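Anyone able to model this chain together with nicotinamide-adenine-dinucleotide?
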Amino acid sequence: MGCLDGHRAVVTGGASGLGLGIARAYADEGARVAIADLDKDAAEAAVRELGGGSLLLEGDVSDPRTVRGWFERIEREWGSLEILVNNAGIIEYRKELEPRIQAITQEVLSGGPQKTALDAVSTLSDEDWSRMLGVHLDGTFYCTREALRIMTPARYGRIVNMASVAATMGIGAAPAYSAAKGGIISLTRAVAREVVGLGITVNAIAPGFIDTPFLEPIDDLVRLGFTAQIPMRRFGTVEEIIPTALLLADPANGYMTGQVISPNGGIF
Ligand SMILES: NC(=O)c1ccc[n+]([C@@H]2O[C@H](COP(=O)([O-])OP(=O)(O)OC[C@H]3O[C@@H](n4cnc5c(N)ncnc54)[C@H](O)[C@@H]3O)[C@@H](O)[C@H]2O)c1
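re: yes, here you go
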């Protein structure tokens, strides 16, 4: 008997990294899991691996019509939904900033003040800003809106939003990402209050730096700079985020809502 026996979960961005780890963990606990992801091949592989009634929801979480279609399908095929994990995300990685990020990393690692101007905000395009907020914040809103239409009449639900320490501490090289994740934390708290009488909890995970394909573009020096700021002196693993994701989906965890839990090696 798993703690999620009979439960049905949608995990956005479930084809890779943290989402895939969470999907596997929920399936191991007895849940049926739908993988909602832009990457069709990886999502198909995940659904094949999970087997047993899992579903593939292909498309872009920042498109409201796509998201509506996903949840209409969930209602048609499953009839109900107990868990939503809003996890799909992209990193704000800008090659042109790399020399300046490296220079700042050198300054910080040598114990001196940060003198180099990064110019991350002054050079950020409208498109990059909008895309970052679209995938993270709009996507979280669209999925939450559709999931609540199913969870509210059932008077039960667990919504888990993937934030980041970028929201709580701010990452200078990733202003749009930090802002989008900050919005996710505020949305988490607002929705938690809205649905507090309906048996639906809404919480967020704000991981620190976790080794997934997401952080692969970061070069070795910058990785060293981040690692030096982490009291545990290492990045975390997907397995180290799973216990928090399980806690927030657990039906026994009914008194916790509007919270942000941050497994982050002590960085914040
Ligand atoms: N890895 C970290 O250090 C870290 C730290 C804090 C928070 N996070 C957050 O965790 C989440 C998962 O990140 P990860 O590290 O597993 O990354 P990942 O790149 O391994 O996985 C992200 C998944 O999201 C999917 N995706 C991206 N854009 C999408 C879209 N528009 N629509 C649908 N699916 C989309 C990708 O195809 C991929 O499968 C993200 O929200 C990320 O911001 C990651």
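The chain has nine helices and seven strands.
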